Amino acid sequence: MIHLTRLNGKPVVVNAELIETMEATPDTILTLTTGRRIMVKEDMEEVVEKVKEYLRETRVWTLPPS
Which run of H or of E encompasses 57? Predict the structure, then answer.
């Protein structure tokens, strides 16, 4: 889950794994795999960084045995 801000200033928490697409129009619009669209204040690069951070924190990376 990532913390973002709606255009009206209210916080919203989004499941990062459900984000299918993002576009800037100029506001950032997230389209989820459910079809729901959410407009947020953060720019696309900031959302991408938050998703990367989320993935780093939640994924366990292991190397195959050698």
Answer: helix 44-58
Q: Closest Cα to residue 27, out of 1, 11, 53, 46?
A: 46
| Single pTM value for the model | 0.84
> What is the block-wise mean pLDDT of the chain (66 residues), using blocks of 10 residues?
97 97 95 97 96 87 65
- Secondary structure of residue 49 in the 3-state scheme: helix
Strands 19-24 and 37-40 turn out to be unpaired
Cα separation, 19 vs 31, in Å, equals 6
Q: Which domains can be identified in the chain, with CATH numbers?
A: 2-54 (2.40.50)
